[in-house]
Amino acid sequence: MKKIITFILLMTLQVYSYAQEKDIYAKYGIKVETLQPGLNVGDTAPDFSGTDQNGNKIMLSEMVKDGPVIVNFFRGSWCPSCYKHLKSIRDSLDYIYDTGAKIIMVSPEEKESLDKFATKKKFTFPMISDTDMSVMNNYKVTFEVTEKYQKKIKTFLMTDIAANNALHNASLPVPATYIVDKNMKIIAKQYNPQYSIRMSPTAMIEAIKAEQ
């Protein structure tokens, strides 16, 4: 009898926990059932390539030959939290480069818009458009955006998420950060569906130094 009661209590807690999680993630515009779990420290980082805002061909497996690479996913130029994070990285870029690391930004935003954003805000680090969302999907950071959140962004930020993306669908990445070593192994990560929580430049630098 006690085992049955314990089982029921555990199941009740799990259901309650999932309901809480769903409510929290819904606040951030996430369709919970579509949320990918991200990769883990120790995993092999999927290789990818793209053309940055300066027309340079970028390939992760080539970049890591010179040192660790920070791969950061962001939602788009329309996102205030993303801009704030990108600006903090821009302002700390010399300190990041002093560790021997490089950095690359990945967004689902269509390339022309992304390039203009990079130029306007004087972001010199490579920024590439994940035109088919293959990079996002390979790193398992993709989710579909709820209709309610899409309406909210249209109302308050005057942006249509689907129209802004290269694929013209309402999917976004968790703004995750992965630090990849020369062997294409993930040595540090930050993954949180609550988009306001990011890996700070200080945390990036500390993670890289910890591996040196």
- Could you give the order of strands across the largest sheet? 5-4-3-8-9
Distance between the termini: 55 Å
Rg over alpha carbons: 19 Å
Proportion of beta-strand residues: 15-25%
| Overall residue-averaged pLDDT value | 91
Catalogue the unreliable spans: 2-20
SSE order: HEEHEHHEHEHEHHEEEH
Number of DSSP strands? 9
Give the overall shape, derived from the CA principal axes. globular
Give a quick account of the main beta sheet: strands, pairing sense, barrel closure: 5 strands, mixed
Query: What is the number of helical segments per DSSP (H or I, 4+ residues)?
Result: 9
Structure description:
This protein is α/β, with parallel strands linked by helices. It has helices spanning 2-27, 60-63, 80-91, 93-98, 111-120, 134-138, 147-157, 161-164, 201-210, and strands spanning 49-51, 57-59, 69-73, 102-107, 127-129, 142-144, 171-173, 177-180, 186-190. Helix content is 42%, strand content 17%. The longest helix has 26 residues, at 2-27. The chain starts with a helix and ends with a helix.
